[in-house]
Amino acid sequence: MKGAPVAKALTERLVPQVEALVAQGVRPTLAIVRVGEREDDLSYERGATKRADKVGLGLRKFVLPAECSQEQLMHVINEVNEDSSIHGCLMFRPLPKTLDEAAACAALDPAKDVDCITTGSLYGVFANRPLGFPPCTAEAVLELLDYYKVPLDGAKVTVVGRSLVIGKPVSMMLQARNATVTMCHTHTRDLVAACKDADVVVAAAGHIGTVGAACAAPQEVVVDVGINWDEKAGKLVGDVDYDAVEPVVRAITPVPGGVGSVTTAVLAKHVIEAAQRMVG
Ligand SMILES: Nc1nc(=O)c2c([nH]1)NC[C@@H]1CN(c3ccc(C(=O)N[C@@H](CCC(=O)O)C(=O)O)cc3)C=[N+]21
């Protein structure tokens, strides 16, 4: 299951919406806030930049060194908040450990929160109410499954990983679609059994090789959300051992070229919606 056709279908719907806003004198604009040079952040930034070009979004990049102070970061977030030509903000996470991530997230104007980093938006996801936007990556997982007509109602879905960025919210969103969700993590006793028994496995652990050959079964649809830098191979890889799992399972997403490309399309969709709401 490649991401490109899903992203293309989404993008095609977005272009006329951007044109309509531009005709009203508003160019929907995304601010990217990046601290440091993490490979997964840089990958997202490359993808988002290409997507912004395709869709016709404005893009403003705010880059700080990994050793920056909390004050410098807060200053940037404030600048994003105050600038009325910016409609949405994506701040890459995790931030370096020296920074207070929760305080930085809380400082963003909720109206510009296109990736669900503020508490109100998160509440919306957990309460299944349309407040703000869900995380782009979590929504991308659902867009991808819908595009490829993978049934969710009553399906057994195993989510591997419990982060606030992806594992927890995607679990809530799958549950809202009436899936029976099993959340697995580092202390799960039998990850292999939880995966082998599932109709859908969402791998979002953030570690290379979390889902290996032993987890694969013929009925499984595997969505690999991981973006890891493989030092040995010198390339980006997911959480799933693709070569070992792919021959066994019903379907699987590649990395790169899977969820990531859909994520950038969802991000563009959110920025446009944020701009539409601000125009009124
Ligand atoms: N607040 C926050 N939310 C995130 O969702 C988040 C984050 N921080 N930090 C970094 C990771 C990583 N991530 C990616 C998303 C898309 C691509 C993407 O578009 N990938 C292209 C390839 C782009 C390239 O590498 O040239 C693809 O898979 O085809 C990559 C990585 C989201 N993350």
Automatic annotation (TrEMBL):
Membrane-crossing segments per the record: none
Keywords, alphabetical: Amino-acid biosynthesis, Histidine biosynthesis, Hydrolase, Methionine biosynthesis, Multifunctional enzyme, NADP, One-carbon metabolism, Oxidoreductase, Purine biosynthesis
Keyword Nucleotidyltransferase: no
E.C. number: 1.5.1.5, 3.5.4.9
Domain annotation Tetrahydrofolate dehydrogenase/cyclohydrolase NAD(P)-binding: ranges: 135-277
Pathway, per record: One-carbon metabolism; tetrahydrofolate interconversion
Domain annotation Tetrahydrofolate dehydrogenase/cyclohydrolase catalytic: ranges: 1-115
Protein's name according to its UniProt entry: Bifunctional protein FolD
Species, as recorded: Tractidigestivibacter montrealensis
Protein residues bound to NADP(+): 161-163, 227
